[in-house]
Hints:
The chain is mostly helical and 96 residues long. Helix content is 56%, strand content 0%. The longest helix is centred in the C-terminal third of the chain and has 23 residues, at 55-77.
Amino acid sequence: MRLEEIQKMAKGMGIRSLKMKKAYLIRAIQRAENNIECYGTKRVDNCQEMACLWKSDCLSLNNNRRALHNLEEFCHSTKGSVRNIAAIAHIFLSQI
Length: 96
């Protein structure tokens, strides 16, 4: 869901969303709905909430974080060698 749509939803619930990042805004909506404030947290690895409005976006966010972490680990292990840029790009793109 796009940030503008989330902001509109939040406004309808009386949540002030000015300058609030997406993850914090979604958690504020979850809190207002008396749900667990779990969007973008490690809870996604064990999430059983099949009807969650945010689930697909949350899973995507988690996968992107994992890919970035793997890229950082790879860069660290190769000491950031310039000749490994193609390998780094391939690994990163295959995990997004």
